[in-house]
Amino acid sequence: MVKEVINKLARINEALNSLIQKASEDGIITNEERKIIDIAKQNIISYEKLVHEAIEDNIITKQEELKLLELENQLLSDTYHVALEDKALDEDEIILLKILINSVE
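Above: the chain sequence. Below: its structure as tokens.
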């Protein structure tokens, strides 16, 4: 279980880099894209902290597993709500959200 959690953390961190790369592809990071990246980064920092605490003893308890799942869901929920602030999702925002969804699968 520890290895799987570490691998997922790596995928989530890669997703953050992919978000930044995708958002800057057209040479402009919009305000909404910046907000999505910022809220994702905040959530990923919390997730990474919990991962490091959870793997300290090389055992992922059921409680730690549930908390990690909760933080994954929070990451997706928070970024989705930020993307919907203007009551619409444009193509670039959908791509950013899909990158995050794929990282936590």
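The chain has four helices and no strands.
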